Amino acid sequence: MRLLRLISPLLLLVLLTAGCKQDTSAPLLDFISNGTALTADRTATAADTFEVRVFAEARDKGPGLRRLTVTTQERFYRNPVQPKFQDSLPLVYFDTVFTQPTPPRNFLLINRFGAGTNAGRQEWKYTVTDVDGNKATRGYRITVQPADSVNPLHTYSVRLQAPRRSGSRAILAAERGFVLPAYAAYNPGPDLQLSYLRWADLVYVPTATGPVLAAPSASAALSSSVLRVNSWPLRRATELGASTVTSGEFNAINTASALSTAVAASTLRAGAAVPVGKDKAVAFRTADGNEGLLYITDVGTTAPVDLIMTIKIRR
Question: In b/e form, how buried is each residue of 228-257, taking b as 16+ CB within 10 angstroms?
Answer without folding.
Answer: ebeebeebbebbbbbbebeeeebeebeebe
